[in-house]
Amino acid sequence: MAATSRSNHCSHSKPQFSFLFAGKKMPLKLFWAFALVIFTISRCFADDDHEMEEFLKREFSLSKPYQGVGSSGSSHWELMGDAMVTTEQVRLTPDMQSRQGAVWSRIPCHLKDWEMQVHFKIHGQGKKNLNGDGMAIWYTKERMQKGPVFGNMDNFTGLGVFVDTYPNEEKHIERIFPFVLAMVGNGSVSYDHERDGRPTELGGCNAMVRNLKHDTFLFIRYIRRRLTVMIDIDGQHEWRDCLDIPGVRLPQGYYFGATAITGDLSDNHDVISLKLYQLTVLRSKKEEEEEEEEITIPSVDNMELLRLGQTEEGMSGIAIFFTALFSMLGCVFLIVIGLVVYSHWNESRRKRFY
After folding, report:
1. What's the CATH fold of domain 54-312?
2. Which UniProt keywords are present, listed alphabetically (predicted)?
């Protein structure tokens, strides 16, 4: 930076600051304008991770040595059903038929933005497709309710993220199990077991999590009304995208929990840790105004469009083939009709001139 002044006056005039840029002097005002543009662009392209801070909330977290879990009223977590605590994990179900268990937080969570990291393990004696049924992570209005949805009640109110290890619908052979999916319920929407939850799912991904020697993790983030689910199951300590859905509206004051269930087939379903982080996020004025309205009923914006996309995605290979075939035939038919009409028009036009 260089400062210049007029030396032929007794009193110094106001200095004219300039900066060197590409070998040329840049006036101060132009420099600051340029810097402001660069800053604005960098903010626009900045990832959420650079705009937020996270804080571990121990009262909503579960980890070793699981002191007092399930046996003391002073504990923040409560066991249900066949769940039991060992030194290494909270076992939701043993590898036995017709079992279900759960662990639920006793304290409602009033965080606006949060992130849950789940360290879990699913293992058993059953071979591929001879195991079941799966486990779920919950953020719901209800708690400590037994039921058929991975050990929780049906028609729940809130968010469920499921690790489904057994395919009930054999027709959809393109979906590989185990499969991770998410669903938002408003208290009147039922989970469809026969179709593996397809009619109400927000999205999902396959996740080969059974009988692995390395650690497996599930990541659930809710920020700015956006739900993101990722998995780390390859032993590489890298998150892999599973689903990312905007417009998810979840009320505050719900409970976190983890449940699992077995039927004729079984597995050990273990939770090693549940770690909840509070996210402190920078919001624009517009975002703050949009989020002022209190959410009382869970919902998802444009749910019909999501279901339409899933219907198209769920089409079998034969259905896709015939759809493409008839589409092509339709295009060819329209082209032929167009050529015939154009030929007749051109012929009548030629006769008028001659």
Report:
1. Jelly Rolls (2.60.120)
2. Disulfide bond, Glycoprotein, Golgi apparatus, Lectin, Membrane, Metal-binding, Signal, Transmembrane, Transmembrane helix
